[in-house]
Amino acid sequence: CQLHKGTSYSINVTFASKIESQGSKARVYGEMLHVDIPFPIPEPDGCKSGIQCPIQKGHSYSYLNKLPVKSEYPSIKLIVKWELVDDQDQMLFCWKIPVQITS
């Protein structure tokens, strides 16, 4: 995938929870040379991103967020890693996608 600087991309993930939780938070990283570099997102709180909390085991949820690609980011290839964890740091979902940041 090509991500263009100065653009914000919509993220929509549908998942079925395997756990119960009062809350959730997103952690996003740019993975380069097997090192995870934290990547700030506008709203890390999953309960403010389309998920109705508390999260119930066996229920399906649609998580919505934005991935802003700032103009000052370098033009590089990397892997975007997106995790959503519960309030006990247990994984709700995780995905990785290779991207190239371009002008």
Automatic annotation (TrEMBL):
It is found in: Secreted. Coiled coil: none annotated. InterPro entries: Ig_E-set, ML_dom, ML_Npc2-like, NPC2-like. The keyword Transmembrane does not apply. GO terms for cellular component: extracellular region. It comes from the Eukaryota. SMART domains: ML. Its main location: secreted. One of its GO terms (biological process) is cholesterol efflux. The keyword Transcription regulation does not apply. Keywords: Disulfide bond, Secreted, Signal. One of its GO terms (molecular function) is cholesterol binding. Residues 1-99 form the MD-2-related lipid-recognition domain. Belongs to the NPC2 family. PANTHER family: NIEMANN PICK TYPE C2 PROTEIN NPC2-RELATED (PTHR11306), NPC INTRACELLULAR CHOLESTEROL TRANSPORTER 2 (PTHR11306:SF68). This is NPC intracellular cholesterol transporter 2. It comes from Thinocorus orbignyianus. The gene is Npc2.
